[in-house]
Amino acid sequence: MVTICPSILSADFSRLAEEIQDVERKGADCIHLDLMDGHFVPNLTFGVPVIKALRSCTKLPFDAHLMVEHPETYIDGLAAAGVQYVTVHQEACVHLDRVLQQIREAGMKGGVALNPATPVSSLSCVAGQLDMILIMSVNPGFGGQKFIPYAVDKIRQAKALLEQAGNTAAVIEVDGGVNAKTVQAVKDAGATFLVAGSAVFGAEDRAAAIASLR
Ligand code: DX5
Ligand code: ZN
Q1: CA 129 to centroid of ligand 1, rounded, Å
Q2: CB-ligand 1 contact for 45 (6 Å cutoff)
Q3: CB of 143 closer than 8 Å to CB of 7
Q4: SS3 of 64, please?
Q5: Which ligand 1 atom is nearest residue 9's CA?
Q6: Which helix (H) or strand (E) is 79 found in, with range?
Q7: What are the binding positions for a divalent metal cation in this chain (predicted)?
Q8: What pLDDT, on a 0 to 100 scale, did the predictor assign at position 165?
Q9: Which bound ligand lies closest to the C-alpha atom of 140?
Q10: Distance from the CA of 138 to the center of ligand 1, in angstroms?
């Protein structure tokens, strides 16, 4: 059982609501929202007001991936906007434990994303407090990049870390370069939340693209 999360980074930004409704009809399970601030990553997307405006266009859960500095300043706004999952970057959080508490206190599920060069062991102290580990399989900032193969091993390590902590409820998400060619390896390694931007929104037949990931 996998959860397919199309990333609207590769959608037509002039028609976001229609694009979300289109992938919902075509089998998506969750909508992945990439917040970028032009500081943590060299790209800028959208923030809480846009997410709030999009909330009523779909019943699917919203999965916010915060590629921003000071992610703690966005948490309350995201909760009020109706977001279900919030993932912060380990590299952006000086006080990761506190941010994770803040996300849960706001009534959302909390995850931590790891850049390709950040080791899984950096999460060993907080493994018991996580609802999700997001393994980045590209360097964050842009859609359509090539999958980094060593991310597969990090998915296995993340799975082992959660098992060791007795945290069987947490899920592993993978983001970047996930497509029909790379998907089997990430599923075999233990990822169940699959983010796909270009592989879904760039496909001529989006229903077939989602089905092939599943
Ligand atoms: C990249 C974003 C991804 C992006 C993935 O920084 O976090 O969610 O949309 O795009 P694809 O699937 O095209 O690699
Ligand atoms: Zn993302």
Answers
A1: 25
A2: no
A3: yes
A4: strand
A5: 9
A6: helix 75-81
A7: 32, 34, 65, 175
A8: 98
A9: 1
A10: 8
Backbone angles phi, psi at 103, to 5 degrees: -65, -45
Catalytic site positions: 34, 175
User: How many whole angstroms separate alpha carbon 203 and alpha carbon 144?
Assistant: 12
pLDDT interval class at 88 (50, 70, 90): very high
Q: Is 37 in the pocket of ligand 1 (CB under 6 A)?
A: no
Number of continuous H segments (helices) and E segments (strands) in the chain: 8, 8
Q: Which residues contact 17 (CB under 8 A, 6 or more apart)?
A: 54, 57
pLDDT per residue over 154-163, tens digit each? 999 999 999 9
8 A C-beta contact, residue 160 and residue 190? no
CATH architecture for residues 3-213: Alpha-Beta Barrel (3.20)
- Ligand 1 centroid to residue 191 C-alpha, Å: 16
Write the single-letter amino acid at 7: S
Q: Ligand 1, residue 198: give the atom nearest the CA.
A: 13
